[in-house]
Amino acid sequence: MWKYANPTFFLALVARVLPWVAGLTVLLLAVGLYMTFFVAPADYQQGDTVRIMYIHVPAAWLSVFCYMTMAASALGTLVWRHPLADAAQKAAAPIGAAFTFICLVTGSLWGKPMWGTWWVWDARLTSVLVLFLIYLGLIALWQTIEEPGRAARAAAILTLIGVVNIPIIKFSVDWWNTLHQPASVFRMGGPTIHPTMLWPLMVMALAFTMLFLTLHLMATRNEILRRRVHRLTMLAAGSGESDVAGARFADQEA
Amino acid sequence: MEHAGFILASFGLTFLVVAGVLASIVIDHRALKRELARLSPVDTRVSPDQPRS
Questions:
Q1: Contact A49 B2 (CB under 8 A)
Q2: Interface pTM (ipTM) of the complex?
């Protein structure tokens, strides 16, 4: 496992798998969008507006999945102090914020014609908004602390504290009386959604997961390169140009 | 299609956000590679095991 977590090995792995992952993402998105607009039926009450569900629900799942990925990376940072865990965590935050933003805005665009309002301060909506604010807070934290190691540890602690919000998001519709509907896919007793709508939703969810994987691999690669640039810049500033090449070789061997 | 504006806005905004994230990552990657090339003036094809001139 440590071999795969080595930054140099990770860069080589990304170069090899990224075209395939990106290709699969495009294929799944194409199939999912086709099923969304041409296979899935309109809802008997909501009509075609239900098609917003095929991006709103996967975006909501990914906003939580991305956060759990960050929490796992935060453990890697705090327990094993692994540099790849830092990079993976930092890279995931803007992507998670983007998916949470999509979830909030598409939910609002779905809520206006169905509920008659853009926004209500109910438990589900508010807890997802809190998740979005946590993502923004983490991004700001990384930009505020200059030393990468300290920034990573501070962000890891904040990420793990923020995990408390995840069960609140999941169970908010059960614990409180909310305008948002309860779970209809991942619930005890199986999904209540009809298979003609469930399958397109599953394909879109898989497509969004692959999209996250593609973006996360690319962003993590950038974080590793950024650390190399930072290290080389520090060496060049401290020891003169002649040491820069040596640092590069040391970096390759790391 | 009923509420077409809401549906198109949802899908359009999702596309814009994802495209924006993707573009920012690609632009960042290009800038980092440029910076690495600038900081590593020695030919990168030379193996670390080979003697440097």
A1: yes
A2: 0.85
Residues of B in Cβ contact (< 8 Å) with A101: 17
Instruction: Give residue A77's domain range.
Output: 14-253
For residue A170, the distance in angstroms to the closest alpha carbon of chain B comes to: 23
Query: Cα dist. A116→A6, A112, A119, B28 in Å?
Result: 52, 5, 9, 41
Distance from CA of A169 to the nearest CA of B (A): 22
pLDDT digits (tens, 9 = 90+) for A196-238: 889 999 999 999 999 999 999 999 999 999 988 988 888 888 7
Q: Sort out which chain A residues have CB atoms less than 8 A from B33's CB and list them.
A: 225
Are A218 and B10 an interchain contact pair (Cβ–Cβ within 8 Å)?
A: no
Q: Residues, chain A, total?
A: 254
Its pTM stands at 0.86
CA–CA separation, A246 and A34 (whole Å): 53
Q: Is residue A182 part of a domain?
A: yes
Q: How many structural domains does chain A have?
A: 1
- Mean pLDDT, consecutive 10-residue stretches, chain B (53 aa), reads 89 96 97 90 50 46
Q: Report CB contact under 8 Å: B21, A233.
A: no
Whether A4 is in a domain gets the answer no
Rounded Cα distance between A27 and A131, Å, is 30
Q: Tell me which residue in A113, A215, A245 faces B6 most closely, judged by beta carbons.
A: A113
In a domain, A63, yes or no: yes
Does A9 map to a domain? no
Alpha-carbon span A74 to A78, nearest angstrom: 6
Residues A58, A129: Cα–Cα separation, whole Å = 16
CA distance A227 to A244: 14
Considering only CA atoms, which of A179, A194, A169, A201 is closest in space to residue A96? A169
